[in-house]
Amino acid sequence: MIAEILSTGDEVMLGDLVDTNSAYLCDRLKQLGIVVSQITARGDDIEAVKETVLKISLRAGICLVTGGLGPTSDDITAQACARAADQPLKMHPQAYETMKTYFDRRGFVLTPENEKQAMLPAAAGVLENTCGTAPGFFFQLNQCLFFCMPGVPSEMKQMMETQVVPHITKVFSLTPTLQIRRLTIFGLPESRVGTLLQEFNSLFPRIRLGFRASFPTIEVKLVFDSTGFCPENEKFFDSSIQRDSTIQAEEAMDTEKNDPRTYFEKAGRWVVRQLGKKVVSLTGLSLEAEVGRLLKQQNQTLAVAESCTGGLISHLITEVPGSSDYFLLSAVTYANTAKIKVLGVAPETLASFGAVHENTALEMAQGARQVSGSDWAVSTTGIAGPGGGPTRKEVGTVCIGLAGPGVADTWQYHFTFDDRSRNKKIFAAMALEVLRRQLAEENGEG
Question: Taking the model in full, what pTM does it have?
Answer without folding.
Answer: 0.73
